[in-house]
From TrEMBL:
Protein known as: SusC/RagA family TonB-linked outer membrane protein
Places the protein is found: Cell outer membrane
Signal peptide from the UniProt entry: 1-23
Gene3D superfamilies assigned to the protein according to its UniProt record, in alphabetical order: Carboxypeptidase-like, regulatory domain, TonB-dependent receptor, beta-barrel domain, TonB-dependent receptor, plug domain
Main location: membrane
GO cellular component, one term: cell outer membrane
NCBIfam families, sorted: OMP_RagA_SusC, SusC_RagA_signa
Amino acid sequence: MNNFGRFFILCLFLAGIVNSAMAQRTITGKVTSVGEGSALPGVNVVVKGSTIGTSTDAEGQYSLGVPSGTVTLTFSFIGLEPQDITVSAGRSVVNVEMAESATELNQVVVTGYNQTQRKDVIGSITSLKSEKFKDIPVVGVDQALQGQAAGVQVSQSSGTPGGGISIRIRGNTSISASNRPLFIVDGVPVYTGAVSGRDFGGQSDNALAIINPNDIESIDVLKDASAKAIYGSRGANGVVIITTKRGRNNKTTITADVQRGITEIIKRPSLLNATQLLELQREAVTNAGQDPDKQGLIPGVTDGVNTNWIDAILRQGVLQQYQISAAGGNDRTRFYMSGNVRDEEGVQLNNRFTRYSGALNLDHKATSKLNLGANINLSLSKNDRVKGDNFLDGVYSGAIKSLPFYAPFNEQGQLYGPNSVGYAGFPNFNPVAQAVLPRFTTYGLKILTGVNADYEIMKNLRFRTKFSMDYNNAEEDQYESSGTAIGGYLQSVGGKGYGVYITNTVFTLINSNVLTYYLSLNDRHHFNALVGNEIIHTQARSSSVSGRLFPSDDFTYINSAGTVDAGGSFYDQNGLLSFFGEIKYDFDDRFLLGITSRYDGSSRFGQNRRFGLFPSVSAGWRISQEKFMETVPFISDLKLRGSFGFTGNERIGNYQFLGTWASATYNGATGVGPANLSNPNLQWERTREANIGIDAAFWDGRFTVTADAYSNLTDNLLFAEPIPLTTGFGSIQGNIGKISNKGLELTLSSVNVDGAVRWNTDLNLTRNINNVQSLANQDTLFRGYTGNGVGGTNAVLQGSPLGTFWGLKFLGVDPATGDAIYEDVNGDGRISPEDGQVIGNAQPKLFGGLTNKVSFKGFDLSVFFQFMYGNKILNFTNTALVNTGADLQTNQSTIALRRWKQEGDITDVPRYVSGDTYNNYLSSRFLEDGSYLRLKNLSFGYNLPVRWAAKAKLSSVRVFASGTNLWTLTAYSGPDPEVSTLDGSTTAQGIDFFTLPQVKTMILGVTVKF
């Protein structure tokens, strides 16, 4: 080509460039979130139908050159609703507000040691974002799950702040081992047991209460074998994976949150006043054939004093919480940090829970191949406890039982003590004194920290290593003065005070190493594989000392005690060595396959069974991707999935496989003797799990359905296996018996209205059937309390669910005599323990939650109901409060007002007869329907317009009001159907024995972003 030709081509090229430049224009704008108005970085902005595009910067700003004329811009970001905006030729600025996507198919879900998109999940996993519980003033992360996830049953054991929470995922799988799920926070398995070494009347404290829920980004609940098998011998009870908030490539955002409100008990028990109780006592003595005016039969009192002891020991509590956090970063380093103070004044006098927490998460891109990360969560707590529940000297229980004839203070305003003059006949106890005089303080410390490195060895091949620690410490400082029941009355103490000091430390060190590889072939075959190993080492130490005979109540620490004669120390450890692997295959976005396995070795089991394999396989078919589904356009996504595999439970005490020796005393000589027999074949409980499910989304995600059916069978139950007494022992720790759980789960989500007004509804329902399939023998095992004449209240019985109640069947009251009628099962003409039978169970037939959220412009309203149906509650409190054997030293419930009084009365309360226990036998008379529907949370908020906030140099401002436990519909006669006297017990479920009810909370809050 000659020079002229080259010149001509160059001219054409330049002309094209000039023409193209003249035909283009630039559109700029800012992308923000709906409501909050905060900038959204990383949003994709593309000219529809072309490859022209860009993304927003850290300020949410973008600038894009587009062809002249009318164009359509598409704005998209994972988790946000995409938007198509038509831009006319004369328009150059386009600002966009983006809302959360109605569909969750593109949301990231944490699945063990990896992540995947919701649409590719083939296991049974429920995910919760922090928005679900941000306005609910929960203490711990376990409370945040209540009513929010199908298959997850959460109950707060009592209304004590910082108290225990019972959580079960797909039922109870064990009789004697732990039934709590495994909690993982940022990849670290965390300790979830009680921090303190002493429970108070069956109620323990809660280690999860000292993790700040406001630092949580998301919660993923793994429920079937395909999701849990990666955790092997720890996965049988389900796995809860918690991901905390992290920084973003964005300018630093500072958020301040303030909440303040009040707490009150949801319902007070209804008790007799002094006049009513005196009348009942005289009647009971008369029915016994005695003279009520005879001295000593009835305390020498009148109804001139009428104390409401419940009001005397309760108060309106104050709840306050303050948090400030900062998040931000650049393309190299991102950070999130927060500080939080939560202070909750309990409704009982002298009861308070205070928590100080802080978090720091760092992510740093050291090189193009190496990423580094670190996290630390630190919590300090102070828990001022009071004795409660079934403690003989409990505050709430004592107030219920105390006689109204007496007062807490004398004429000089001084508290009556156990030996006070003028308190003759009083049962050596003053509930108000028991509340305010002792000191039961627990100081808690939890440190959760870790560092990790992520290195790209080659394209799609990465190695990640993480070193972590979970540290828990509790110090208990206790003193009961001479004015309390123990410190002033117990003979072994000497009436001069009693002090206890306990320390308890549990820490876990973890190292995990994971190699992941991703391979794509022809854009149709996708492989995702990982292999790894994990080493976990746990140590526990505790010590205690007690003292008595203090010089006065002004000297309250052990070094002032006249006698220090009791104490002890304890140490143990355990370890877990694991290897695991996972392969996931995706063909053409239609067929999904997953294979997972973990090989665990636990120091808790015998030499012959120390290692075990826990495999699973899962498969999915995305039907919506098939050609024939193109004729059904309203179905956005339809996926059928199934899984089968095995998980285990190794959470029992340490060294139980060993033949151990212990100190022993015989005939005044001290030595050692055998304590337990060895069992080298002791192994973990194993659960076989099968699950089939369906995920469907309609009308671009406006309506979604997730349904699961599962069948789980746990064998090798860890249990005390009976052996002949000729061995010198009654039992040996072994693996016997089977428990099954079968159930259905349904989750529905809908966007009912989507416009200026947006209305979402979420509903989840669960039906779980629990059954003890087999035991070492068919003898009924009683757990829990002892009933009058007929054994225990809870029975572990082959063919029945855990939580089964055992007792006499109450048939009513004989109108002629006023005596109870019980079913004579064996027909021998008398009522005896042999007439005991199954009278109900504590397992609900159905449970779940319903949430409705409505937003309009800057306003939002959330209404959350939580419910349980078909479960029974043993109102064991009424064995004392409707005690027809007339315990004259205990007040009675107003239920006693409908007692039988004369021939012909039709009632369900037998006559009162002093000293006669026949009418008070443990029977179905004390068993009630525990079903309830509870308005768990109601919150109303308002986001100030962005322009108003901007005038104050703020990014956004939100004010809100929130209330919890505001209303309950139930037939249960007790104050609260959601209680459990023995916190977290598997066998003794559904028992209400002087248990402090839940509290309702009403708060006002404001959230400000800078």
